[in-house]
Amino acid sequence: MKDSRSLPTVLILGGTPKERADMELALSDDFDCLKAGLPGEAWALMSSQFVHVAICVGDLDGNECVDVFDPLLAHWPETMLVVVGDTETDMSQHSNIQQVLSRAWSPTQLSCAVSAAVRAFQLSRDNERLALEMRCKSRSLTAPRRDTAASGFESILCAPDSPMTAVVNAARQFASFDVPMLLLGEAGTGKSKLARAVHDSFLRSDKPFRSLDLTGLSDAAAHLALFGRRKPANGSPPLHQAGLVHQAQKGTLYLAGVETLSRDLQLRLLRLARDGSFEPDGAVDSEHSSARLITSMTTDPHQAMDAGTLDAALYFALSIAELTLPPLRARKSDIPLLAHAAAEDAGRLHAK
Description:
The chain is of the alpha/beta class. It has helices at about 15-25, 40-50, 65-70, 70-75, 105-140, 165-175, 190-200, 220-225, 245, 265-275, 300-305, 310-320, 335-350, and strands spanning about 10-15, 30-35, 55, 60, 65, 80-85, 95-100, 180-185, 210-215, 250-255, 275-280, 285-290, 290-295, 320-325.
C-alpha cells in the first residue's frame, strides 16, 4: 500500500467525471490525487490540502479552465499547472503553466507532464530557501552579532499565504498606538515573541521590556514580582525591591496568564491598566507607571468571564487592541521557514 503522505498532491479540475477518473487511474501510483468538477470544490480542497500541481481540463462555464483557476492562484501562487484541452493555450500568459496537452493524452504523457510540474514546484521552493539563506548570511555579515537573527516583526517568520501574516500586519498597526494590547491563542503560538516585536517596533524600543508568566504563581509571589516592596513603616529592617511595573517604566510590560490571577490581583491590574497607579508592599502612597501593558491568555476570555474567573472590566481594559494568534497546525506553509530558523539557531548556539 502506498504512503500518500510522501507523494506530491495533484488536483484534477474540470472535465467529465470519466476524464477525471481516467486521470486519477493514470497518476495514482505516483501521486496523491484530488478531484473537483467545479471551482468551488477546488477552492475547498486547496484550503485543506497542500496542492503541488493542478490539472485544468477543458472548459468550465464557457471559459477556459485555466482562466477559472486564476483566482485560486492569487491565494496559492506556488501551485503549478498542467492544461489539458482542445484549444490553444498561450503559455506566456500564465507563468505557472508547465505543459499543455490535448484531450487525447496518454498515461505516459500525463505522468511525465505532472512529474515535470512537480520538479518545477520543488525548484521554486528551493530557490526561495536559498534566497532566505542569502538574506540571513547577508544580515550576519553586515549587522552586529546578536543572540537573535532579527528584531521587531522581522523576527516573526511567516509565508505570504500564512494566517500569521494578517496577525503581524495588524500588530504593526497597533504598535504605533500607545494602548493596552491583548494576545489570545494556544500555548506555543508565539505570543511573547509578538509582544517583544511590538515593543521593538514602537517609540518605546529604547526603553525596558519586562515580561512575566503569571500562571501558577501564588498571590503573594505575583504581587511581589509585579509591584515590588517598600521598607515597612513599623521599623523592620530596610527591605526594598522594585517590581516589574516599576522596572518597565516608560517601556513595555508583558504579562502572560492574566486569567489565572485571583480576583484581588485582577482588580489591582485593572487599576494599573486604567490609570497606571499601583502600591508596592509596605507603601503608604500610590505610585504611577507609564509602562505599556501587553497581556496574553491561553483560554477564551468570554468563557472565562462566563465562568467567573475573569473580571469583565479587566478584559475590556486590556483588550483595546486584541489579536488571536493561529496554532502551528494552521500554519503549514510556515513550517519550512521555522524549521530552517531552528536549525540556524542550533548551529549558532554550537558554533557549527
